[in-house]
Amino acid sequence: MIRWGFLGAGWMATVFAPAVYEAQGALLQAAAARDPERARGLGPVTTHASYDEVLADPDVDAVYISLSNEAHLPWTLASLAAGKHVLCEKPLCLTADEVDQVIAAATTRRAVEASWYRWHPRIRLAQQQLDRIGTVRHVSAGFTFAGELDGNYRMDPARGGGALYDVGHYAVSAALWAVGRGLPSDVAARARRSASGVDLSTEAVLEWDGATAEIRAGIDEGLGQWLTITGDQGELELRDAPFTTWTGTESELMVSGGSGTERLRVPPANAYRVMVEEVSSVLEGGPGWALPLEESRLTAACLDLIRNACGD
């Protein structure tokens, strides 16, 4: 049994907490938030007055961090220093250099980026089907939505705001695992910015030798999600919310090739619960999968390249 402590009780924590309740091998032991009532509302065994008290709690084995983006690095490092494993919301860090600090600190405890879509069975099925489409030549990936931006930390560059960090992370990471060739050799990108300086939308073209990816992220436009992976022998298409397929929703993977198109149906699954169960198991030395820090660093490094191409 892994006893989880929550740092923060915002919206993501309210989504994550039920997954801990449902997961085997996990217990919501403690929580702390700026608003103690919200922390109590998550239903932990113990509510603490501060994040530091959660880290000092001997009954907490691992912490889940759902704070705003700029707080991820300091609280991940503090948690590791306190002897706690860490599951931190994406982006784990704002730069590849920051991820390097986490890698250096995660010597006796694990740090895992909670890019929850990676645990969804449809994503895993898509990864298993990549061989059927041959060498990947092109990826089209995007995530846009119309956010409630007034007073939102997403509008503050000092807090890691903007579309690229928020939803571009999904599209970029998907392109990286689909192409499977490390960092792109060339990046072209442009951003449309708010008065505060954050990117309201970012478009990027990533190029490898023999492969390209088109990326789009937006936080003030119509809702859209797409992921299409084209190889020299076929194509994979994940329709209808490839990055946020919720519990209770059946999904499908379209596999096209020389013999036609096959529709592979994926039963409903709670990727949050799968993530909690598998990470909890891994932390105890059992079976399961945890997103490697090397992959988190690769995504962060690619985001660095896109930001640099946009003039950041």
Quick structural summary:
With 312 residues, the protein is α/β, with parallel strands linked by helices.
Task: Output the keywords.
8-stranded mixed β-sheet, 2 domains, Rossmann fold, globular, Dihydrodipicolinate Reductase, domain 2, 6-stranded parallel β-sheet, 312 residues, alpha/beta
Q: What would you note in describing this structure?
A:
- With 312 residues, this protein is α/β, with parallel strands linked by helices.
- It has nine helices and 14 strands.
- The longest helix has 17 residues, at 163-179.
- It is globular, with a radius of gyration of 19 Å.
- The termini are far apart.
Could you tell me how far the N terminus lies from the C terminus, measured between alpha carbons in angstroms? 44 Å
CA-based shape: globular
Question: Which stretches are low in confidence, meaning pLDDT under 50 for 5 or more residues running?
Answer: none
Structural class: alpha/beta
In the CATH hierarchy, what is the superfamily of the largest domain? Dihydrodipicolinate Reductase, domain 2
Looking at the structure, the CATH topology of the largest domain is: Dihydrodipicolinate Reductase, domain 2
| Residue share in β-strands | 25-35%
The main β sheet shows up as: 8 strands, mixed
Domain tally: 2
Numbering strands along the chain, what is their spatial order in the largest sheet? 8-9-10-7-11-12-13-14
Name of the top-level CATH class of the largest domain: Alpha Beta
Residues in helices, as a percent range: 25-40%
User: How many H/I helical runs?
Assistant: 9
Mean pLDDT: 96
N to C succession of SSEs: EHEHEHEHEHEHEHEEEEEEEHH
Rg, rounded, reads 19 Å
- At CATH level 2, the architecture of the largest domain is 2-Layer Sandwich
Number of strands: 14
